[in-house]
Automatic annotation (TrEMBL):
Signal sequence annotation: none
Protein name: ETFB lysine methyltransferase
Lineage of the organism: Eukaryota, Metazoa, Ecdysozoa, Nematoda, Chromadorea
Organism for this UniProt entry: Ancylostoma ceylanicum
InterPro entries: Ribosomal_L11_MeTrfase_PrmA, SAM-dependent_MTases_sf
Domain of life of the native organism: Eukaryota
Keywords: Methyltransferase, Transferase
Gene3D superfamilies attached to this UniProt entry: Vaccinia Virus protein VP39 (3.40.50.150)
GO MF entry, a single one: protein-lysine N-methyltransferase activity
Keyword flag Ubl conjugation: no
Alphabetical GO biological process terms: methylation
Gene Ontology cellular component terms for the protein in this record: mitochondrial matrix
SUPFAM superfamilies: S-adenosyl-L-methionine-dependent methyltransferases (SSF53335)
Keyword Methyltransferase annotated: yes
Family, as annotated: Belongs to the methyltransferase superfamily. ETFBKMT family.
Length: 293
């Protein structure tokens, strides 16, 4: 077992808090929240440069809410019934940029076959932990990574200069919610940069399929790159593309018209953001789920 993987899991267990203050209160996730000691600490306290996976971003909450289907959805959804997890039962779901793993977990609960994908990588510090945390961390890594790698022959998640911390966080949260990973694969490929996406295409073309992602559109240059890739995936596989986003500029209608890759978006759901989420995420008060047409 990799010491690096084990240390990341232990760091997550020691430095995050279990929270369900979100649009998906039925899911418990280990996060850095307002109550965490790291919330107001200096950067040197955290061994990860940008631990995006330790936060539950608004777009991720919205798209997870859509998969879970418990709260009512925005009026005007037409015939597209979102608040029904049966929509995802038996489907193939790619959680692109899975972060803390919320959408992957919700899709697994609904009975989907899931690929949890992320490349958030950094070099962890080495710390000493208590026996209870050490045992739990080792159990998580053995269950979700070592065994899976041997059984399915997936490539190791280790890289030369770090590991995919987001995938460890996802595995931790699967365990926290007692959700089996028998139908889940943890994949660390950079799908945007890959010249060979045959495995991904085959997975999405195999039947009813979805690509879900949230909070991926922060600047226009990267947004256009992601949209171009998503459109290519949609055209080649027929997968439905579902995006959660709190009305950031790169997805505004006027900005979409400026991209070389032309896409049409359709709003499927909209939510008011809880006060605690609004405080933690730059004051956004609403978040939408859209589908690329």
């Amino acid at each position: 077992m990799s010491k690096s993987l084990r240390h990341v899991a232990k760091w997550i267990l020691r430095n995050t808090l279990i929270s369900n203050e979100s649009l998906t209160p039925e899911l418990r996730l280990r996060l850095i929240t307002e109550q965490s000691s790291l919330w107001r600490s200096t950067p040197d306290r955290c061994p990860f440069a940008d631990p995006f996976w330790a936060f539950y971003w608004p777009g991720g909450q919205a798209v997870t809410r859509q998969v879970s289907g418990v709260l009512p959805f925005y009026p005007g959804n037409g015939l597209y019934i979102l608040d029904n997890p049966c929509l995802f039962n038996g489907a193939n779901v790619l959680d692109f940029g899975c972060g803390c793993g919320s959408a992957s977990i919700a899709a697994s609960i609904a009975g989907a076959n899931v690929v949890a994908n992320d490349i958030d990588t950094s070099e962890p510090f080495i710390h000493l932990f208590g026996e209870e945390q050490r045992t739990l961390a080792e159990g998580i890594i053995q269950e979700h990574f070592v065994i899976l790698k041997k059984k399915h022959k997936y490539k190791t998640l280790l890289k030369k200069d770090g590991i995919e911390d987001a995938l460890v966080a996802t595995a931790v949260n699967y365990r926290l919610n007692a959700v089996p990973t028998t139908q889940t694969r943890f994949v660390a490929d950079n799908m945007l940069e890959s010249e060979d996406n045959r495995t991904t295409h085959a997975f999405l073309k195999a039947g009813k399929s979805f690509v879900v992602l949230g909070d991926m559109f922060y600047d226009t240059e990267f947004a256009e790159k992601v949209l171009t890739w998503l459109k290519r995936i949609k055209e080649s596989t027929g997968a439905r593309i579902l995006i959660g986003d709190p009305n950031r500029h790169p997805l505004a209608e006027e900005q979409l018209r400026r991209y070389k890759t032309r896409v049409i978006k359709k709003q499927l759901a909209g939510y008011s953001i809880p006060d605690s989420v609004m405080r933690e995420h730059y004051g956004f008060s609403a978040v939408n789920v859209i589908e690329l047409q």
